[in-house]
Each structure stands twice: as C-alpha cells, then as structure tokens.
Amino acid sequence: GGFKAFKIDIHPSLAARNGEFTPNIGPREADKVRRVYELAREALGPDIDIDVHCHNELDIASAIKVGRAVEGIKPLFFEDPLFPEFSESWASLRRNTSVPILTGESLALIEGTLPFMQNQAVDYLQLDLVHAGGITGVKIIADVAASYRMPICLHNASGYALNLASQQFAASVFNCPRIECRP
Fold it and tell me: How far apart are CA 110 and CA 98, in angstroms?
C-alpha cells in the first residue's frame, strides 16, 4: 500500500513560480535541476519513483538538457516539458534522452492524442477524464493507444470524485498501469 511515486516540480530548482513560463535554461540551471533531483532521490531512496514535473514551458534544447540532467536518478517520467500540442519536438526529445516521456493532461479527444502515438513521440499518454472527452473519449484513446502498445496514465488535479472515477476506469482497461491522485 501507500504511495509509490511522487511528482516533484522543476520550478523551485529554476527559482520560478509554478506555471511561470521558463522557456530556455542554460548549463548552470541544468546543473541546479540535476542537483535538486539528486537530493530528492537521496531523500526518497531507491524504492520510491520520481516524476520530473514540468508545465509545458521548456523549449526543445532546454527540455533535452533537463532530460539528460535527471537521467541519473532514473525518473519514472519526464512530464509535460514541451508545449502540449504535438510537434516534431516531442519526437526529438524522445530520441535525445533516455528518460520516459509523459504528456497529455490537457489534450482532448483522439484528434489531440493520435499524432503522439503515430509518431512514437512519447512513452506514455497521461489523460484526464475531465479534459479528454469523459469516459467514452478516454476509452477510445486507451483502445487506440493499446494498438500502438502505448500505456496510458490518468491525470487528476480535481480531487476525490475524479480519484474514484479514475480508479474505476483504470480497472476497466489493461493498458493503464498508473493513476495520479491527490491525497
């Protein structure tokens, strides 16, 4: 039981407020990011997974720097580093770092998610039942993702009711190994 992974925002290491647009980082900032996540790994130990959490604010060069900076802690995910809609930058990031890439919380319907699957641009899609078309819309995406052998995860920033709906949904599909929840 209990929590097996924690999201840790990138923002404190960049001296930025959560959600503040920080498009480009240099070597010193990348080193600060590396150190913050090394300290998190040290504090949490090897048995707790870490999600390197962004808010779609980095440019591709910075996202690659951050991805490489955190490779040593073996993060569970590198979440939402780039602008949310599909671009070739997502595929470039996946090719240029070994950390698993996750995105999708603000994508809607199959139209928003299909390019990520077709281009193998991410390792996981993180869908939100509220934003991605409800249970029916997410079920369609999950089924298509299964045909690409891509797991989905469920996003939840909305609280208890969405926790319950996400648990029920995750139990109904085979390719949803994780859900996000709020304690």
Answer: 27
Mapped onto helix, strand or coil, the DSSP state of residue 153 is strand
- Please say whether the dihedral angle defined by the alpha carbons of residues 53, 57, 63 and 66, taken in this order, is positive or negative: negative
Q: Is 52 helix (H, G, I), strand (E, B) or coil?
A: strand
For residue range 43-62, what is the model confidence (pLDDT) as tens digits? 999 999 999 999 998 999 99
Per residue in 3-40, pLDDT tens? 889 999 998 888 887 766 667 889 999 999 999 999 99
The beta-strand segments (E) located in the chain are 5-9, 49-53, 77-79, 101-103, 124-127, 152-154, 178-179
pTM of the model: 0.92
Residues in Cβ contact with 106 at an 8 Å cutoff, skipping those fewer than 6 apart: 56, 84, 128, 131
Longest distance between any two alpha carbons in the chain, whole Å: 45
Phi, psi of 153 (to 5 degrees): -130, 160
Q: Six-digit token pair at 96?
A: 């240029």
Query: Three-state DSSP class for 9?
Result: strand
